[in-house]
Every structure is written in C-alpha cells, then in structure tokens.
Amino acid sequence: MRFRPGARRGRLRLGIVVTASCVVIACAPAPDRSQLTVEYYRIHAPERERTLAECEQDPGSLGQQPECINAREAARQLGIGSLKSLPPMGLPATPNSPSGS
C-alpha cells in the first residue's frame, strides 16, 4: 500500500499521542473520598448506608478504606451513642459477699 510522503510519520505521531493520552488518563489518581468524615456520615444517613453496603459486599479490598472506616464509626456512634446515656440494664443486684457456703 502506498502512502503519500509524510503520512506514515503523521500516523505514527498520532498513535504516540493517543497512547500517551491513554496512559496519562489511566494513571490519574482516583477521586479522594476520604474527605467524607465521621461527622458527614452521621448527618447523611443514605450515603452512610450506601457506603456500608458497598464495604460489606467487598470487605477484602474496601474494608480498610477510610470511607468504610468512617461510615462504620458513624453507624457505631449513632447505634449506641455514649455508654453513659444508656438506660440501666435492670440486672438483679448481687450481694457483696462471695457465695459458696
């Protein structure tokens, strides 16, 4: 096949530019979701639930990601709150003396 003079170099340059562009785009860092703090997840319940569901689906690769940790911590804080604010458990009182004889 015959190309006109200079066309072969033009195609080669175009191929290099396209390849270099693909490499640069592929190596771009992922968006930083670690900006989503515990406080954010405490306020935004739907986002917290969605993130927790994603993290539970793939715990091997997502389990220790900052957004998973922050969402779990927010759920933990909202789930129990402070131990001081919990109502008494209503356990029976036990005598101070050891039992035995």
Task: Explain the overall architecture.
The protein is mainly α and about 100 residues long. The model has no long low-confidence stretch (mean pLDDT about 80). It starts with 6 loop residues before the first helix and ends in a 21-residue tail after the last helix. Helix 3 packs across helix 5 (about 65-80). It has a domain at about 30-85. Helices cover about 55% and strands about 0% of the residues. It is built from five helices and no strands. It is rod-shaped. It has helices at about 5-25, 40-45, 45-55, 60, 65-80.
Quickly describe the structure.
This protein is mainly α and 101 residues long. It has five helices and no strands. Helix 3 (45-57) crosses helix 5.
How do the helices and strands follow one another from N- to C-terminus?
A: HHHHH
Query: What characterizes the major β-sheet?
Result: none
Rounded average pLDDT: 78
Number of helices: 5
Q: Give the N-terminus to C-terminus distance in angstroms.
A: 106 Å
What percent strand?
under 5%
Helix content: 55-70%
Count of β-strands:
0
Unreliable residue runs = none
Shape: rod-shaped
Structural class: mainly alpha
Q: Over all CA atoms, what is the radius of gyration?
A: 29 Å
